[in-house]
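In this notation, each integer encodes one residue's backbone shape. One such record reads:

___
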Amino acid sequence: MRNLFILVLLLIAYTAHAQTATALLSSRPPKPFKVLASVGYASPVDLSGNKSLGKAGFVYSLEPQYEIAKNVDLGARIEQAFILRPEYIDKTYYKTALAKFTLSVVATANYTFNVTGSLKPYIGTGVGLYYVQASDPTYTIGTTIATYPLPTTINLGGIARLGVKFGIAHLEAAYNFIGDTSVRNTSTGLTLTGSNSYYSIKAGLRFGGR
């Protein structure tokens, strides 16, 4: 799956590079197709103070976009966030998550505001699929040792984001809404929850387009 993901990213990047080169050699205006390449910081939303073993990390994404109308772009964001989600029982018992990244493919829509000056603010939203690895933590509660196998998660989720463009560069903050993963242990009657939502702050460049 990872090899296929990398191949898709390389093909998209090559397409955008070829289009940019063509536009530079032509007197015609650039086509409305473009690709945004971004890197930055990502963190689980629910860190629950000092008790949580969730950890922030690195995130990168590629997003092909097409300008369907003035200031309106539709796209498909492919993103991988290397974070450790918090996993807990009743927000009392915590364990280090074995799920080390979240992978997503999200259909997006962006609107760029018409303002004077070189900084162009924009807002966006999207909906798509999020993949989180399985986790199999063991908890000791009193004298009981219980295993809670959290399955691989493929959830429908969404994003809300706010950013600003400066020429071919952009800076963006995004919130990824993803449903939690839960499993109940029949021997203890308790439920383990993995909190999948995360936010990110990314900077990047535009290839192609306008």
Summary: The chain has a mean pLDDT of 83. Residues 2-24 form the longest helix (23 residues). The first strand starts at residue 33 and ends at 44. Residues 72 and 111 are 5 Å apart (CA to CA).
